[in-house]
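The pair is set out directly below:
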Amino acid sequence: MRDEREQGWTPAIRKADSEYVDDALGIEDEYESELAAVQVKLTRLEVSPYEYAARRAEIAARAYLRLAEAHRRFVARNS
């Protein structure tokens, strides 16, 4: 395994990587939690399959937008 100095990594890059991973994992946790909640409503027949699909799409879209923003911040920190 190559040394971090050989790879050109700096403390700032490692910190940016760490922040990006933390952001991504937090977003994923929230996504899974929201999705699980709407899945429970579907199994309890509290929402129709159509409503479930719409909510699932909204949850996914929101998560993807948040991931895109986290990626933008990551790129900015590494520039």
